[in-house]
Amino acid sequence: MAAVHVALRGVTRVFPATAAQREVKALGPIDLDLMRGEFFVVVGPSGCGKSTLLEIIAGLNRPTEGTVALEGKPVVGQVPEGIGVVFQEDASFPWLTVTDNIAFGLRQSALAKTEIATRVDHALRLMGLTDFAAAYPVQLSGGMRQRVCLARTLVQKPRVILLDEPFGALDQQTRFLMGDELLRLWRESGATVMLITHSLDEAAMLADRIGVMSARPGRMLEIIETGWGEERGSKVVATPRFVEITARLWELLRGESQRAMAGAP
Amino acid sequence: MTPGQVRFTLALGLVLLLEGLSRFGFIDRFAMIPPSEIFWHLGKILGGGEMWPAIAKTLTNVVAASVAAVVAGVILGTLIHGWRALRETLDPLFAAYYAVPVYAFYPLFIVIFGLGDVPQVLIGFMLGLVAVIVNTLNGLDRVPRVLLKTARIQRLGPLATAREVTLPYAVPYIFTGIKLAVAYSFIGVIGAELIMSRTGLGYEIGYAYNNFDNAVMYPLIVFVLAVAATVNTVFFLWEKKMLARRRK
Amino acid sequence: MTRALRAAILIAFVLAAWQALFWFAGPNALTAPLDTIAYTAELLSSPRFYPHLLETAHAFAVALGIAISVGILIGFTLGLYRFAADVGEPVLVALYSIPKLTLYPIVLLAFGIGMPAKIAFGAIHGIMPIAIFALGAVRNLKPVYLKAARVMRLSPSRIAARVLLPAAIPEIFTGIRIGFSLTLIGTLLGEMFASQRGLGHLLIQAIGLHNVRMIMALTLLLVVIAVTASALLLMVDRRLRRNMLGAA
């Protein structure tokens, strides 16, 4: 598990000036290594460029400077094979049933029908969606729809899974439970996971390592090693180590958050 | 180039193209006269004074139809909004209303009201009325409940609530209806004048057409389109500004 | 109160108002509801009537086909190219709101009398709303759908066919529904002046001869056709939107 899976060097993102606004330096410079199979969480104040960072790693956005490499190969403006993304907004397609949504990506590939059916079935069971297989997203709650998006990502067996505040719209209690579920999926898939969140609790209880970002333009202030083993998630909320980590995170972020609140729209 | 400049250039190009095609005989004088002549004749007509009664008549009718549609529409909309059963009964009527060819009722109006201005204004009014009602209903629907609760907590009576909370909040959406009422009044009044009237710009255009008088017909068409487009665009931009304050 | 019961009450009310209007205005202005319905039935069973119905249907179908294809093409093109939309949208909106009946002499001069003029007139009426709604459909596409499709490594053509199109269909269909009604009205108007056949021609002829029975029967027929079609399209529209989250 000591291999570098995704490597970022000197990545910056500058949004050029338009008629409406001046040039905005959103991100960087960032140097970061994601290790194979780890659970990495990025926390930072609002507007620090977390989502931009995720989109650059995914290949949805080009960095203004710097390089991104996945498994040694550069990522340039195109989404490489092997990456899965769960977005903050609900990306489930309203015109498809849950099953068709989950199968969507697979059906565009050359995979055999039987294989697709097997994978979709497995995903439905894994995410607790079997009862809703024929339902439409409009009939489901926000949390369920995110599960559909998660399932859609997982069936493609990605090696890197990026999640951008996937539980942002959910209440605190549900978030705790979804966090535990995410851990379960991470272990089963064996993928490298990068989660973006603004919740210090979430970062502290889930991650192997936490990258703390500064206010805009976001840079990595510090990387915290949590040292969690098998025991993590909502189970460790009362432990001293958890309290230590959250305290350290707040120490780093208090100033940054104030700066973000004063400056960012 | 800004979009406005591009539009201007394209329009200019189109006019020049038409000018060229007419002058070099590709377009029959019988079908259309060159744009330069159109504008020259337009100047003459506007300066001449014989058309002013027709222009005044049409504009008066349009204003009358719009104002009537807006006043009646807002009042009716507010009343219907308060009575749920009535609203649900009328709903299919509103949904189907604009499918109906309202011009078909024109002969009926003429027989009942005679050949004066009433039929035209009535058609314009009828076209605009439902748009105002529907948008008034929409606007009143959109008043967030939390604002109404706040009014109750502040102990505002129903009239005060309507005046201070409901109406101000709903105004931009009602304004969409006003914009439509104005547009429909133009369409209704001028269309009706063209079909079966003895006065007004619509009539004059029809008359000029029947007499093969392109030198009068085209300038009048251009004039009507220009006035309608300008007025409608003004309302459209005004509405946009109002709604911008409501953007989430 | 069920929907059907409310609809029945509405229709009953309209019929009652119609009857009352008949008593007030006299047989020179109107025919009573029952007489009108009887006469309409007579017309529909008369062999001389059908050619007119078919003529109108033919013109309408072609006009609608043109309006839909050209409208969607314009809407999509403007939707996909931001600058084109900045230039073109105000033009579309302006064209939508002007009294298109004023263009009718120009259409006649360009196409002559007959089928092409009717089709052109119908198409002109229908293109605008379809284009405007198609433009809106592309614009309102949730960006996250595109991102999700890109993450699944779909080619641009697959994205257009499997994501853009299904997501856009409900909104486009609303445009088609409105365009349907307007194209019908436009075709009828075109027939009223540019044809020797068709329902519109019969209508203007009846107006000229002051054949009240015929006017009323034709109006009734047109209203029933328009409202029924509109109701059916509305049902389809609701079905398409049923699954779209957040759509009005």
Describe it for me?
Chain A contains seven helices and ten strands. With 265 residues, chain A is of the alpha/beta class. A six-stranded mixed β-sheet of chain A has the order 6-7-8-3-9-10, sandwiched between helices. A four-stranded antiparallel β-sheet of chain A has the order 2-1-4-5, with helices on one face. Chain B has helices at residues 3-23, 35-48, 52-82, 84-97, 106-113, 118-141, 145-153, 158-196, 200-210, 214-244. Chain B has 248 residues and is mainly alpha-helical. Chain B contains ten helices and no strands. The two termini of chain B are 30 Å apart. By secondary structure, chain C is an all-alpha fold. Chain C contains ten helices and no strands. Chain C is globular. Chain C starts with a helix and ends in a 6-residue tail after the last helix. The mean pLDDT of chain C is 86. Chains in contact: A-C, B-C. At the B-C interface, helix 1, helix 4, helix 5, helix 8 and helix 9 of B face helix 1, helix 4, helix 5, helix 8 and helix 10 of C.
Question: What portion of residues of chain C belong to β-strands?
Answer: under 5%
Instruction: Report the portion of residues of chain A in β strands.
Output: 15-25%
Sheet with the most strands, sense and barrel status of chain A: 6 strands, mixed
H and E string of chain C: HHHHHHHHHH
**CA-based gyration radius of chain C:** 22 Å
Task: Characterize the main sheet of chain C.
Answer: none
Total number of beta strands of chain A = 10
Number of strands of chain C: 0
Name the helicity range of chain C: over 70%
What is the average of the pLDDT values of chain A? Answer: 89
What's the Cα radius of gyration of chain A? Answer: 19 Å
Structural class of chain C: mainly alpha
Could you give the distance between the termini of chain C?
24 Å
Judging from the principal axes of the Cα atoms, what is the shape of chain A?
A: globular
Q: In which order are the strands of the major sheet of chain A placed?
A: 6-7-8-3-9-10
Percent in helix of chain A: 25-40%
Q: In oligomeric terms, what are we looking at?
A: heterotrimer
The SSE order of chain A reads: EEEHEEEHHHEHEHEEH
Protein chains sharing the most extensive interface: B-C, 47 and 52 residues
Outline the low-pLDDT stretches of chain C. Answer: none
